[in-house]
Task: structure prediction
Amino acid sequence: MKKITIAIDGYSSTGKSTVAKQLADYLGYLYVDSGAMYRAVTFYAMQNDIISKGYFNVEKLIESLPLINLKFVKNDDWNKAHIYLNGNDIEKKIRNLEVSEFVSPIATIHEVRVKLVAQQQQMGFEKGVVMDGRDIGTVVFPKAELKIFMNASAQERAQRRYKELLERGEAINFNDVLKNIEERDHIDTTRQDSPLVKATDAIEIDNSEMNLEDQFHTVLQLAKDRIAGRV
Ligand code: DC
Result:
């Protein structure tokens, strides 16, 4: 059967990764969480005194890029591939609010984007890939057969992220989560290089009022139509 490329972009915490993973599993495609790659670079920067509150050494970050080796590793015991930074599994260390606070400034740096976009394009070279992020349909795979743009209100997204972080045992308060989401929306949409915008040929889905099952079936139908060449 014909394999296609599926790009899923949208704001933070719109559930992009959930639907992307469901779709990849169903179709037997590779799933790539591009946000994990920006988070991994951020984790490296935090560990190597490149970024902290009120401090960001952009030059050092750019110099360090050749030392940052990212890889996704699969294991039958895990529900999704884990991201490895220089040989170490950092999957569990990149989803906290601290990494979320620094990731958007890191993602504005052109050299970071050039490195990660090249690796993402390499991973999707043979098609049969579902990738989620901010610039997948506009920059990474502008020719993707299916582009989805996910949206939901900031309040709803903050509620979802807050619940997720609480379940993971993080001591956080709702207003900090909401503030982080709004700040990231602002930086992601106003940065100079590859800002978050809906590709002209993307289909927008607002899932504020949608359950996971309805959302999955909507997107799956779109994918099936593209694979069959019906649209
Ligand atoms: O999807 P996420 O929330 O894990 O992404 C973390 C940050 O990484 C997000 O705030 C912006 C950045 N990002 C990006 O600039 N481009 C991508 N393709 C994916 C993520």
